[in-house]
Amino acid sequence: MSVKNKIKKFLYERGITAYQFRKDVGIAQRTAYDLYNNPDQLPSSTVLSKICDTYEVQPGEVLEWVPKSEKPEKGVSVESSQSDSSEENHGSIKNKAKPKSQMQLLPPQEAA
């Protein structure tokens, strides 16, 4: 996801607690907790409208776009070990993705 919430920073800069945020905006405790503690949690359009109306701010003050280059990419690669003396050394799977510039495009295969 390339959009994140910055509610925690927004509230901190204004000296507003998570509890006061919940009361001010009139949202459920769980919703307020999720928005406050998880930047990947985005408010629904209804909740975003309530936040903007309550604090008289634009959506950009509580949401931000994060370019893909700033986010870690996810993928799978296999690393193998030089030693074959035990099963532990045959390889391990790690989260790692090749940058798009290193990916190779293969020609389409013909149907038989």
Automatic annotation (TrEMBL):
Region Disordered, as annotated, extends over: 63-112
Residue span(s) of domain HTH cro/C1-type: 6-68
Q: Where is the composition biased (Basic and acidic residues)?
A: 67-76
Q: Which domain of life is it from?
A: Bacteria
Q: Which InterPro entries match?
A: Cro/C1-type_HTH, Lambda_DNA-bd_dom_sf
Any one GO molecular-function label of the UniProt entry: DNA binding
Report the protein name in the record: Helix-turn-helix transcriptional regulator
Q: Which organism is it from?
A: Mojavia pulchra JT2-VF2
